[in-house]
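Running log. JK asked me to keep both predictions on one page so they can be read side by side. First protein, sequence followed by its tokens:
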Amino acid sequence: MSQTITFEGSGPVRAGHELPVVRLTAWLRQHAPEVSPLDIRQFNGGQSNPTYRLDTPGKSYVLRRKPGGPVLKGAHAVEREHRVISALYAAGFPVPAPLILCEDEAVIGSTFMVMEMVEGRIFWTPTLPDLTPDQRAAHFDALNATIARLHSLDIQALGLEDYGRPGAFFARQIQRWSRQYQEDDLAGRDPNMDRLVAWLPENMPEDDGAACVVHGDFRADNLIFAPDSAEVRAVLDWELSTLGHPMGDFTYHLMMYRLPPSMIGGFAGADLTALGIPSEADYLAAYCERMGRAPPRSHELRFYMAFNMFRLAAIFHGIKGRIARGTAASAHAQTMADNLPALAALAWAQTETTS
């Protein structure tokens, strides 16, 4: 049976994720002296890359690292996160201020980055409880406006024209996630995933050449809001970012309408009108209006939803593999792995829907 996933705050560093405090402190005193001395705690999120809170007498920082042990090729790219955050911060987009990147694995055993910690409110439940319907509507509009703003940024002005390969986004993504799924023998196989590996390449919409910076995991719990308003102070977790198609990134975000509450970021079945949450169609229309794009046609939306659920299922499959290898970063990793069969089945169901 699937279980609901919740992530709240930070706690003691979990077994297997300890940092070599003496070496880390010595390195930081040399390269970022404002960060030491340290009190170190681990955030309960950080599904892929372990993430820590570093407290000093005057300020708090966040350290994000690659997990220890063997990792799949191209995964856990902390150095890419540092690069994109640095570019976006310079452009005035809401991200944490990047401080420093360390690629010397001798320091803590893997590449890591340090950034300033942004204070504010994170909503771990996608329906944004404790808000009034009017407040909730404003926060959803801010989510929509923020991802549209990201997709509207000029790649060359950001200096990110080589951050990925524009064009053929879906073909490359399907190939990447199919390969990671198929090569992770320890995580096993799923029949619906196998069906999607075959279906997706045959049902891709025509590529219109649109390209932008895509976040790759845009959802409410990866944003920090102001404590008392819908102002977005920071977008977090850029590990999956690249250059890609804006509609592919937005429809990943749109999955929240179709994922059940037992899966991360989902609220399918909720009373949207009572909550003040716009309908899926209205939310999609608002994004398209902001972007000056025509809404996707039904067969295109069917593909986008199947593709994104497949991609998320492939991520869950990777987490299942990391559990088998003993390198899973999150305290909730087993729950996500347990949700894999249901998510893969839901992904395949998108190929047959008429909505």
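And the second, directly underneath as requested:
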Amino acid sequence: MTRGRGEVVVTGVGLAVPGVATPEALLRRTACPVTGPAAEPFDTAARIGRRGHRYKDRATRLALCAALEALRNADLIPSDGEEVTVPGDTVGVVASSNLGNLDTACLTAAAIAERSAVDLSPMSLPNASSNVIASWVAIRHGLRGPNLMLCNGATSGLDAVHWGATLVAAGRVRRAVVIGVETHNAVVEDLLGRSASELLDGAAAVVVEGARWAEARGARAVAALGPYERRAGLGGCVEALLPDGAAPGVWFTPECYAEGPAGAVPVPGAVPRYDVTGAVGRASGALGVFQCAAAVGWLARAGAGAGTGAGTGPEAGAGSVFEAAGPGAAPDPVPASRQALITSGDDTADAVAGLLLRPAPDRCPPHPARAPLISMECSR
């Protein structure tokens, strides 16, 4: 799906991961500092308090922490509250986690098999539901828009960002909080055959919002979403996003990506690479959301977050990607060298997802007159 430049933007980022306080910190190459002890597990109680812990599993608590920070970062929740300052039905939730509540589901099944369902706690049983993470985020903050939970393998996190943006672009909501979360425990370690030190115990969240709605409430966009692609292979995915061999400014590679010979790699060798799993651990279904958060950090560090820089200079020639701002608008180039390429999944996976993240537009592009509201569209 291709959206007009600036139509859907990122207005907030939230993290709940040990030792990482800002998106820029995700750009480091290793999880642990060169000296000193490893970071302690993220303290969810310090952010969401005791009420946020009652009868909730760790993945849900981590997701609540990241979502709260992202919503506050987007100025949708005041620093001293939890309720959104916009109508709740204008905000949706999309969460991604492949393994988040696996321990609850497995332990529940084992308890039933060994004893009976009578031994199960009615307060903990809802945690076995596959959509518990997305649901609790919505309940906690009064978000009454569409509520989705994705468990889609290697591409799940980027797919979640795409579907959050699709809800916005389709007019179902004006904004959506997208969360990626995974945690490690004995069940996950046994399934993956990896130690806890290799696995993520944390969450990331981004708020995606219609640019005109963000501008109307005075919110600052930190990035703009470019096109999204889903293909069978990595090379085809990158070529669809960046035709004619255009080189992006940075490449956020698939998880633990091992590059082959130079000719087999779809991105030029001079392009900087980041694998966020080096900073946070193997992220599974949370990877794509963490990559988007890291890309926001890269855009900020590169000084590209202030605007697109227009398209009249020499950079607007070869190696640029063009998208129309709206019906009848002239193409407005964003040089590929100023964009972050994000890919999840490689040629060993069932599919590869890719997304371009761009500098935030200076302002919302002109928008055509709206058609009459339909029953499925938010009306506030």
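Observation for JK regarding the second prediction: Residues 1-6, 304-332, 365-375 have pLDDT under 50 and may be disordered.
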